[in-house]
């Protein structure tokens, strides 16, 4: 329900329902908290108005109700964090699927585009070096590495098969960027010098927008890409149709 109220798009990843439930729970709680404190605020204005209290009382109210309210908020926050958010976060950052059963993809961000690097039929990523970066070789693949010759590099176009774990290893060539695919409920910073993994399992074929969620320069607005979720057969056919880095 909260997705419709907030205008959020539908989730198409296996973990999206848990993310959305946590968001919905938090927003309904904040709505109740807002209404509760608003009622209390109005009550205090009426209860302690000047007409009824012409002289200041330094003792003030002695009711314990505000303390009970604050205690209830603290307890609810603890339940939300310990019972829902921390276990969900822990699962996402520690319980990665087996790489042998997943699709491994490297994403290298730059101002203002996404470079997508797939291993070739050998299943091994070729070596990369910043010294080899050029207009024709935007991620610096080493042509002398035999594992690099069958690799595939695409620009702003990420393909993945449906119903299969996708592990993205994310880095940046220049400044901090942030990979965001909202329908997959994925957001992860890309930091120069770091190789950060993020994963999801898409549940529906289609095309979904990739955006940069971190202000990264004067053309940040056009740092967009497309995630295409294919059937396994279409994904294999697409990958086979792409030119290899070494022309193989």
TL;DR of this structure?
The chain has 248 residues and is of the alpha+beta class.
Could you explain how this protein is built, in words?
This protein has helices spanning 2-6, 16-47, 65-94, 232-241; strands spanning 103-110, 113-118, 152-155, 157-161, 166-172, 177-181, 186-190, 196-200, 206-212, 224-230. With 248 residues, the protein is α+β, with helices and mostly antiparallel strands. The chain has a five-stranded mixed β-sheet, with no helix packed on it. It has a five-stranded mixed β-sheet with strand order 4-10-9-6-7. A hairpin with a 4-residue loop joins strand 6 and strand 7 (186-190). Helix 2 (16-47) runs antiparallel to helix 3 (65-94). The longest helix is centred in the N-terminal third of the chain and has 32 residues, at 16-47. It is elongated and about 90 Å long. The mean pLDDT is 88.
Strand fraction band? 15-25%
Number of strands: 10
Helix-strand category? alpha+beta
Span between termini? 50 Å
Question: Judging from the principal axes of the Cα atoms, what is the shape?
Answer: elongated
Rg, alpha carbons: 25 Å
Query: Strands of the biggest beta sheet: in what spatial order?
Result: 3-2-1-5-8
How are helices and strands ordered from N to C? Answer: HHHEEEEEEEEEEH
Report the biggest beta sheet as strand number plus sense, adding barrel if it closes: 5 strands, mixed
- The percent range for helix content is 25-40%
Low-confidence stretches at least 5 residues in length (pLDDT < 50)? none
Q: How many helices does DSSP assign?
A: 4
Summarize model confidence as the mean pLDDT.
88
